[in-house]
Amino acid sequence: MSSSQQQEYWLISAPGEKTCQQTWDNMNNVTAKQSNLSLNFKFHIPDLKVGTLDQLVGLSDDLTKLDSYVEAIAHKIAQYLGDVLEDQRDKLAENLLANGVDLATYLTRFQWDMAKYPIKQSLQNIHEIITKQVGQIDADLKTKSTAYNNLKGNLQSLAKKSSGSLLTRNLGDIVKKEHFVLESEYLTTLLVVVPSQLKPDWLGKYETLADMVVPRSSRLILEDPDHSLFSVTMFNKVVDEYKLHCRENRFVVREFVYNEEALAASKNEITKLNMDKKKQFGPLVRWLKVNFSEAFTAWIHVKALRVFTESVLRYGLPVNFQAMLLLPYKKSTRKLRDVLNQLYAHLDNSSMGSGSADMVDIPGLGFSYSEYFPYVYYTMKLDFIEAKK
């Protein structure tokens, strides 16, 4: 993961001075040119419809919830894409793009999408458009992931049956036709799993566990570190008795009927499931890539809406503020915070400008007292690529 993904971006706004350009220049001078504390970008927000103060206050709370929701959906898609890629997970970064570019590029060069979110619509309507859009992505993700996970689960279950202990694994991949007496009216062949330490017991006892056992009929089919699989042939009438005596001696009879058609169907099922998985893989990856981009870009638009709403609530009308994106350099965050607080101290004469840690809710503003600064302030991390646990 690149350092820009690990680090936290600060999205802030300050009121326009003589011009918004001057606001930008002053901030950039003290944080970047003079002290080299952060890498800065203008964050372009179009002229949105303001509405009434009451609407803005209500919308502020709604946007706080929407922000968390959309970010969570983007993370969910990214995580699931990593799961789907499996052993190609190292390619996750190149698949997590926003409008065809890497996430940092999209964020630092953000342009409002006029087609998806028309600025002639009210802020509430844009909020509803994003809510509906991301809600549909979330619902579709649940449907698609459930179908694909079921397919993977069935394959894993069959794979588990084809390996592991002889007590549980699928015997159809092990036994052969010649291991059985077939098409006999009187004889039956049983498959018995014997613990390795009891193998001498089995060889000494198997002919005497019941009457009418075919002498020297037991054949070793397969051994693993813990167990051995034997066949043994007897008359049908003593099968139940033989099973009982096997249990008494800790020999495990596996229920198995040799049927070539059933064995072929089982192998065909695995082949079909593998083909279905390969067939679904490509379209699912494409859908996840497209909808990660949709969710991520929607999230950045929600951030823009929050900055706009809070800036109007904080700085008043007419709308006159400059939104700015800062990427603090490592170990510079404390100094950067101090510089910004000094630069914008005049915006708020209360003690809240100190960034006090007391937790007091501020009605109408989407943050608590501990996060309150003289300027509008939000954070975001582009940490959508997580190490596999």
TrEMBL record:
Keywords: Hydrogen ion transport, Ion transport, Transport. Gene3D superfamilies: 3.30.70.100, subunit c (vma5p) of the yeast v-atpase, domain 2 (1.20.1460.10), Vacuolar atp synthase subunit c, domain 1 (3.30.70.1180). The keyword Ubl conjugation does not apply. SUPFAM superfamilies: Vacuolar ATP synthase subunit C. It comes from the Eukaryota. The keyword Manganese does not apply. Pfam families: V-ATPase_C (PF03223). V-ATPase is a heteromultimeric enzyme made up of two complexes: the ATP-hydrolytic V1 complex and the proton translocation V0 complex. The V1 complex consists of three catalytic AB heterodimers that form a heterohexamer, three peripheral stalks each consisting of EG heterodimers, one central rotor including subunits D and F, and the regulatory subunits C and H. The proton translocation complex V0 consists of the proton transport subunit a, a ring of proteolipid subunits c9c'', rotary subunit d, subunits e and f, and two accessory subunits. Subunit of the V1 complex of vacuolar(H+)-ATPase (V-ATPase), a multisubunit enzyme composed of a peripheral complex (V1) that hydrolyzes ATP and a membrane integral complex (V0) that translocates protons. V-ATPase is responsible for acidifying and maintaining the pH of intracellular compartments and in some cell types, is targeted to the plasma membrane, where it is responsible for acidifying the extracellular environment. Subunit C is necessary for the assembly of the catalytic sector of the enzyme and is likely to have a specific function in its catalytic activity. PANTHER family: V-TYPE PROTON ATPASE SUBUNIT C. Belongs to the V-ATPase C subunit family. This is V-type proton ATPase subunit C.
